[in-house]
Amino acid sequence: MGGGPVAGLWLAEERGVLDALPWLEGFCDVRAGAGDGEWLEIHVRRPSALGLHALPHPAPGAFHLGPESLEDYRELGFPGLDRPPVAQLALLSPRSGRENHLLLGHLALFLAERFDALVDFDGLLGQPASPDDLPVEEEAVRLAEARRLVSSLPGRVWEMPYATYGGGCWYSHVGDRTFLAAWLRHPDFRMLP
Question: Which residue in 41, 79, 98, 120 has the fewest CB atoms around it within 10 Å?
Answer without folding.
Answer: 79
